[in-house]
Amino acid sequence: MHRIDLETLDLAADIMHDATNLAIAARRGLPPDAIVQKPDGSVVTAVDVALQIYILSELERAFGRIPVIAEEDHHSIGGKFAAEAHCRALLHEWGFDEGESEIARLLSVGQFDGRARDVEDVWVLDPIDGTQGFVDHQHWCPCLALLRKGEPVFASNGYPTLAGGVLLSAVAGEGCWSYPLDAGDEGEPARWSVASAPLGTGAAVRVVAPSRATDAQKDARRLVGEASGHPCTLVHADSQAKYGLVILGEADIAYSRRGGGPGNYIWDHAGAVLLAREAGAWVGDVDEGPIECGLGRRLVANSAVICAARGLGPTVARVLAERDRSENLPPPRRERA
């Protein structure tokens, strides 16, 4: 299996730039019957599926075939005839006319279920992370990462609802760069860094909470923020947009806690882990260890994904570790490479 030249990954960023703009346009004309439920009860739209097919087709055209971990598959809208018809109409509009067999193949290639650390390169794709936000006109983002031996080495996430609409891209060791979504080829990239200065006396720390947070979730987030010694203000977002808020300076702390659950899906975190790290944010787990992306479709080794600016990461890790202990939850399960 061939190895992707990291110097060519501007092509992947271009694909994600185009894909995000296609999704923005598709959202404006999204019919109600193109919004359905998956077998697991979560919401999905014809745009999610069409965008995954489009992105994977373009990635294959640019880089050849390599393993893919992606969220959607043929079950996502299969048998929902209006959604399937809208998906085909979008693909035709976007210039994809390969037929049903190719659609089926592209929806099957994203089901890699091995350990990414055991293979050379693996794409990780969530065509629309935060589909509920996409439907509700809130935050959402197309997200792509490349893992090399299980480590994120490239990421490109579109954030249409943040900072006026930007694409953030990063290659490991080369920083995080922002590109305006609405400027086409004329947009100038800018190097992006998170705020590093400590909060001033009396300044509020901004903590991201789920869009539909319960009172208990809000209280828990406030306690995390107040552990920094500052009053806390909540900012609401789901998906990798929560990490985008920290990267783009619109929040100071975002985290996703596994709790007693089976572990978070890798496509909900991998891209932002690299983007945030390359922008200078603190990224880690409750033991201050790394986020391990190479063990399968879930982050099975991690208890939480923490992203923080202004040196606040260790404080968040300590508070969440104490909460895990109080709930008798196991610590992160580290595995030697």
Structure description:
The protein is of the alpha+beta class and 337 residues long. It folds into 2 domains: 187 residues, 2-Layer Sandwich (Fructose-1,6-Bisphosphatase, Chain A, domain 1), CATH 3.30.540.10; 122 residues, D-Maltodextrin-Binding Protein, domain 2 (3-Layer(aba) Sandwich), CATH 3.40.190.80. It contains 9 helices and 14 strands. It has a 7-stranded mixed sheet, sandwiched between helices. A 3-stranded antiparallel sheet has the order 12-14-13, sandwiched between helices. Strand 10, helix 6 and strand 11 form a beta-alpha-beta unit. Helix 7 packs parallel to helix 8. The longest helix has 19 residues. It starts with 9 loop residues before the first helix and ends in an 11-residue tail after the last helix.
Key words describing this protein structure:
337 residues, alpha+beta, Fructose-1,6-Bisphosphatase, Chain A, domain 1, D-Maltodextrin-Binding Protein, domain 2, 2 domains, 7-stranded mixed sheet, 3-stranded antiparallel sheet, 9 helices, globular
* CATH topology value of the largest domain: Fructose-1,6-Bisphosphatase, Chain A, domain 1
For the record, the count of structural domains works out to 2
User: What is the topology, as strand order, of the major beta sheet?
Assistant: 3-4-5-6-7-8-9
Q: Percent helix among the residues? A: 25-40%
So, the CATH homologous superfamily of the largest domain? Answer: Fructose-1,6-Bisphosphatase, subunit A, domain 1
Low-confidence stretches: none
